[in-house]
């Protein structure tokens, strides 16, 4: 069984390709319904669970961590759990955090791997999407990387094959908790005047956190936000902004995301 969370489609793309290579048809997205209920039932009993999600501030996205803590997954008794994280650059000590979450559930944590994919984070000074050339290079390289990861999952590897990056301890142990506390607010999200009121951002939010106002003219954001940035990247006319931080920044969506 593959369980994935995605904002702009990179993790869905990787999850789908892994699923095809494992000839496993059980693939579940963590979104509104599953996140709310915390319940997943495997279609048939399975011996491997593969978790696929993006790296957020050198750690597990809080929405995924919260889900793991309360998850009730039927049909996975005795299964090995593998983690595959997609990241723009590096993942710090994410492996330790995920292993702890999994073992606290009494589950068996096996391998941890990362795949470099195009960057999606744009909400702070100095952070932007990759150039088209770099994004293309990362996507091209991902095929070979997935083959390696699938081989690791198939043989039941139990080690980490992770790009930790420099200063991993500071990034995961100091910056990650700070980021969660102070840099994940959805409050700065807004639509600028050019918004056409098409409602795409509201329909696409994986947490159902965006509603249209009563005249269906403008979106407004609620408090249940994963900061996945799908609403920002998916607006066809670039009308979603995050305070002033996203002014002039680029947009990216994985082409294989649906
Ligand atoms: C809130 C947020 C934080 C991120 N933090 C990191 C990070 O610490 N390291 C990194 O390499 N990429 C980081 N990224 C980039 C994503 O992990 C990467 O682009 C990923 O492939 C996006 O996957 P998705 O399309 O499935 O959402 C971050 C993206 C977001 C939205
Ligand atoms: S997707 Fe863009 S144009 Fe459409 S409602 Fe949302 S902000 Fe407005
Ligand atoms: S409001 Fe935007 S950033 Fe927050 S969860 Fe929904 S799509 Fe993602």
What does this entry look like structurally?
This protein is α/β, with parallel strands linked by helices. The protein has 2 domains: 2-181, Flavodoxin domain (Rossmann fold, 3-Layer(aba) Sandwich), CATH 3.40.50; 189-242, Alpha-Beta Plaits (2-Layer Sandwich). It has 8 helices and 12 strands. The protein has helices at residues 10-21, 32-37, 62-70, 94-104, 132-154, 168-182, 200-204, 230-234; strands at 2-4, 27-29, 39-41, 48-54, 72-74, 80-87, 108-116, 160-161, 189-191, 210-212, 219-221, 240-242. The protein has a 6-stranded parallel beta sheet with strand order 2-1-4-6-7-8, sandwiched between helices. The chain has a two-stranded parallel sheet with strand order 3-5. α1 (10-21) runs parallel beside α5 (132-154). The longest helix has 23 residues, at 132-154. The two termini are 19 Å apart. The relative contact order is 0.18. The mean pLDDT is 96. It binds flavin mononucleotide and iron/sulfur cluster (SF4) (2 copies). One iron/sulfur cluster (SF4) binds at residues 7, 186, 205-207, 209-210, 221, 225-231.
């Amino acid at each position: 069984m593959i369980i994935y969370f995605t904002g702009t489609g990179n993790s869905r793309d990787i999850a789908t390709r892994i699923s095809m290579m494992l000839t496993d048809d059980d693939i579940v997205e963590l979104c509104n319904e599953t996140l709310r209920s915390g319940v997943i039932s495997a279609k048939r009993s399975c011996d491997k669970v593969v978790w696929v999600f993006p790296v957020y501030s050198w750690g597990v996205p809080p929405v995924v961590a919260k889900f793991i803590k309360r998850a009730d997954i039927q049909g996975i008794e005795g299964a090995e759990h593998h983690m595959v994280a997609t990241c723009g650059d590096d993942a710090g000590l994410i492996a330790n955090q995920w292993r702890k979450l999994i073992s606290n559930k009494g589950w068996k944590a096996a391998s941890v791997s990362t795949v470099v994919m195009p960057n999606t984070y744009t909400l702070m000074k100095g952070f932007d999407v990759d150039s088209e050339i770099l994004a293309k290079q990362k996507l091209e390289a991902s095929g070979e990387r997935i083959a390696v990861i699938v081989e690791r999952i198939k043989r039941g590897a139990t080690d980490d094959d992770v790009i930790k990056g420099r200063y991993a301890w500071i990034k995961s142990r100091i910056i990650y908790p700070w980021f969660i506390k102070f840099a994940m607010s959805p409050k700065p999200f807004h639509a600028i005047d050019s918004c056409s009121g098409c409602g795409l951002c509201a329909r696409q939010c994986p947490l159902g956190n965006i509603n249209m106002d009563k005249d269906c003219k403008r979106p407004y954001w609620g408090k249940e936000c994963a900061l996945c940035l799908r609403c920002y990247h998916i607006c066809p006319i670039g009308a979603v902004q995050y305070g002033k931080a996203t002014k002039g920044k680029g947009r990216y969506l994985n082409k294989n995301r649906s």
